[in-house]
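Lecture 7, part B: from sequences to assemblies.

Below are the input chains for today's worked example.
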Amino acid sequence: MPIAVYPGLALTGAKVIDIVTNPQVQFETQLALHERYRTPFVLSAMDLSAEAEAFGCAIHQTETEIPSVVGRLVTNREQAGKLSVPQPGDQRTAVYLETVRRLRQLPDQPLVIGGCIGPFSLAARLVGVSEAMEMTVSEPDLMHLLLEKCASFLTAYLHKFRQAGADGVIMAEPTAGLMSPRAMSQFSSAYIKPIGGAMADQRFAIILHNCAAKLLHLPAVLETGLKTFHFGAPMDMAVALDKVPADVVLCGNLDPVRVFVHLSPAEINLRVRALLAATSAHRNFVLSSGCDLPATVPLASLDAFYAASKQS
Amino acid sequence: MADLKKLHEAVVNGDAKTAKAVTEAALADGVEPLKLVQEYMMPAMAEVGRRFECSEYFVPELLLAARAMKTALELVRPLLTATGAQPVGRVAIGTVKGDLHDIGKNLVAAMLEGGGYEIIDLGVNVTPEQFITAVKEKGANIVAMSALLTTTLPSMKTTVDALKQAGVREQVKILVGGAPVTQKYADDIGADGFSESAAGAVAAAKKAVGA
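Predicted structure of the full complex, as structure tokens:
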């Protein structure tokens, strides 16, 4: 289950800006990959700027890049207090909800997985990522004030994804992986847990993605109470699988750039087989990329990945 | 007499207020500014780097330590300039054109400053011309480039080529880093050094300049 939407550009000829602004283009890009690889699932694109934009952040956008937040929306406690919580569907969050609605209509009924940002990663984009790091120590109350608002929005957003027909979401929380386990527990897991609780009776999976998390973060990650986690290259997947309960699923973790962009198909084959061999004792592992695959990933790399996983 | 060990502690603990207070007291006591930098601040940041490498410290702790050192350095720097003391090197650092991600760049800048380098922080979305200006007009002898996106990687090569065309390539050592960067890519574009981590950037800089 690689996180792959943007590499579909090679099949459709669309541009990144079209994917992140037009739900039909995003749908067609994912459909192209779904049809090529006969995947049992389909995804909306990963875009960690859409929710921040809905809050009011300025966005830098080009034709070829996923948009990114520029500047700082919140610089002090007063601004944090006055910050309004947007509605799901505001700004480009509507694109992702509509994409999910269209994916839900596919006749072969694959699993439909939406995407959203995690609460700490969102709060960090509102105040600036470097600033957020320091503020977890210097101004924790301000961070908690923002986190409450971010979590409130995300809970509503997940409900809308469910209503749109999603079977779950990948919640991307990479910024939390830059902190200590203790800080991750306080500023991320503590907010994700109630979000998960709010969706608990909805038959809706939250797959928590954290591509910066290492083995020492595992206890803090598990505090969220979620059952499915997606990790990046820094995680020792084999050891992590030994540490988690059998009903917790771990996904990952082939490096999106160093494997999928830089390696040859033959080398990718070897990496897939090595990872599957290392994790073969566990039934609760799902082979995946370590993060969202950029548009620059050649289709040959994905071809090699899927071929190797089928062979194994 | 100021307890100078408290300066070391304050930097390691990310306590900018104490770092400033101890530095002020030390300078008032007549302690040599260079001694404060070389015997207390730089070893403190080296300790911070060590803790970061072995996952005792994380990004917040590193940034706070850097801020504590910067606060103390601001008091010391004018005095060092007056004595003619030179930094270990002058680093023009930035995230390359097209890329707006700054946290990796900020971490490397913090570690290099802690290693005794003067930092000329060019920010994000930095054009080759801005790097060239930093070399020609501010005396940078190290150019450090960061990229987080595969699509902005080519800007690193563009910058290396631009430095050659501007006739300043031989004056500088070029360091590169960021998620999509590999040693092979660094070698392919003719960079002098590569580091996978912020803490490793100091060693990469030392190796590149032959220090």
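Note for the exam: Chain B has a mean pLDDT of 93. Keep this in mind when comparing with the next example.
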